[in-house]
Amino acid sequence: MAxxxxxxxxxxxxxxxxxxxxxxxxxxxxxxxxxxxxLITFFMFCTSLSKPQTMEINMPSKDKVQEDQETVVxxxxxxxxLLGQENRVFYYTGxxxxxxxxxxxxxxxxxxxxxxxxxxxxxxxxxxxxxxxQKKLNKEISEEDFKKQSAEIKGDKNAPVVMIKASDESTYMxxxxxxxxxxxxxxxxxxxxxxxxxxxxxxxxxxGLLPTEESATPQ
Length: 219
Prior knowledge:
This protein has helices at residues 30-46, 111-121, 123-137, 143-154, 172-184, 197-206, and strands spanning 2-5, 24-27, 78-83, 89-93, 105-107, 161-166, 189-192. With 219 residues, the chain is of the alpha/beta class. A hairpin with a 5-residue loop joins strand 3 (78-83) and strand 4 (89-93). Helix 3 (123-137) packs antiparallel against helix 4. It starts with a strand and ends in a 13-residue tail after the last helix.
């Protein structure tokens, strides 16, 4: 509602110069409050809220597993990633060789670092996933079929298996960055594993925390 108050009165004399009238304008914004509340309520009920995205993480179990229930991993397909201090990351393939510190390879979190290595090792799965995503974009398959087929592709027995081991000096951001790379590189089988004494020894040697004459290696 708006209210205009002219004020000033009328000129009662004749032949006299009329003074300019003062105009006071007052706008009542009270109805706008109700309108804003209606708009807020409308958008709250009509807007879809973002759904939280979850990531499946495999953690080591403390329960004893029978030998026939153990998952056999090929040595050539095993990759171990070690998270060190100061945002440094290392990896080695196959079985660990704690007697050879040079078996540990240092990389970084850039596209040309850890991601490039994982994409090369998982090239077969990555190519199949790209073809499957293209079929989904072309609406050749449904969302349910896409999830089913992608799980089968990522679960290939010949695909690499990644074990992530974080040291006490690493950060949560380092772990999150590595988990992001698992999704980007379509790694279907990966797990967060407790770091062993031998892995700590390799990290210490790579980071220069041990003297060069150190010869004893933990078992």
